[in-house]
Each structure stands twice: as C-alpha cells, then as structure tokens.
Model the fold of this input.
Amino acid sequence: MINTLIIEDEEPAAMRLKKLLAEVDPEVEVLAVLDSVESAVKWLEIHDQPDLLLLDIQLADGLSFDIFKQVTLDSYVIFATAYDEYAIRAFELNSIDYLLKPIEKEKLSGSLQKFRRLSSSAPRFDINELMAAIENRKSSYKKRFLVNIGSRIKSVETGSVAFFYSMEKSTFICTRDGHHYPVEFSLENLQSLLDPDVFFRINRQYVINYECIEKIHVLSQSRIKVELVPAADDDLLVSTAKTHRFRLWLDR
Done:
C-alpha cells in the first residue's frame, strides 16, 4: 500500500482528489485529509510519516512550505497548485512532481507512476533550495511590455498596469493613467509572467493589480465585486471558484 496524506484546504478539491486516487491506483491508502499548516504539523508530529504527501501550496493559514520548516520529513511530495507561478523546475528537482489544478486523472496517474519508479531511491527534498528557487523566479517576472501605437513602439512598465483584460479574442492592458494598449499575450500566458503577489486573475476576462484596487464589495459569501482606479468598463466580479483564493491573496 502507498500510505498517503492529503493536505488541501478546499473540501470539494480534497474529496475529488481522494476519489481520483481511488480510481487511478487502488493501492493508495489515504490516511487523512488535512486543511491547514497547523493541522498538518500536529498530525505529522504524532504519526508515522506517510509514503507520499499530496498537498496544495496555498493553505488557509499560510504556504504549505511552512510545514517543512517545522517538521523533518522523508516522504515524497507532489504539490498541487492553481497557479503557474509555482510550476517551476525546482519542484521536479526537490519532489516527485507538481500538478496544476484542476487536477487531471491522467496527470495524477503519471505522477503516481513516477513515484513508483523513484520509491526505491532515497527521497530528496530541500525546502531551502526550493524557496531559493522561488525567490530567483520572482526576479524573472516580466518588467515591461512593448506595445504598438500605430507605427510607433512604446515600452510600458509592468508596475504601471492597472489591469489586463481580454476582449474579442485579444488582450489589452489599461495603465494607471487610463491608456489602453493591445499586448501579444493571452491571460493564461500572463499568469506565469506576472508577480502573483501583485497581480490576480479574478475571472476569465480580467487580471488586476492589487495596488489599483479602490473598493471591495462583498455581495454574498461567494460573490465579491472589485472597483479599480482607473475604472474598468465592466463590473469586476470575482468568479465564485476564485473567491477563496482571492481572499487569501488579499491577506498575504
């Protein structure tokens, strides 16, 4: 059996992952499903180490990396994340794999196959090396964008962008002074190019700059509306699926 611990703070995602594991590999035994850094540390301090850790990066009370700062582990690790910002080569060097959400059955199966191939060798996980790699990654985020204005080219500093938006299959930026320019990137591409501490994709159409948020309206438990300066032409509603992540992002 592969004794496995799931650490995921979104219950639907945790239950789906548990179900996928049962479908992909009947030898996987889920020992527990935990939802925070604190609960994971407490569990690991009193139980034998699992063979495998499947954990989300952003938890309700912090980053899952904090677990490894408090508990020494020899388990193999598979990270799951909804954001490309963490999908870096360092994960492959320090753990088995990483999976982008929503987790696909085929990719989960591939990660478990990788675990089986590597399980005979000594686990290798260096939290300091991983955190250093992430910090290096931060320095590589895109600093400026070249935009075309007729026959001219203009350089726009990333920090001067209030928001990015898609319209009619094209992507545009709106600067803090209210100018709009087309850019040659999709919003999906931009998510891996922008600093996730500053920019957040609130829905399928908009990526916003934290520093340009003027007001936040809580319409319901799962519905949030954002006002920016300068204002967008549309009502900026955070998609229901991203509401929890958005709250965590605001509280960093």
User: Anything to note?
Assistant: The domain at 2-138 is CATH 3.40.50.2300 (Rossmann fold). The mean pLDDT is 85. The chain has two domains: 2-138, 144-250. Residues 24 and 65 are 27 Å apart (CA to CA).
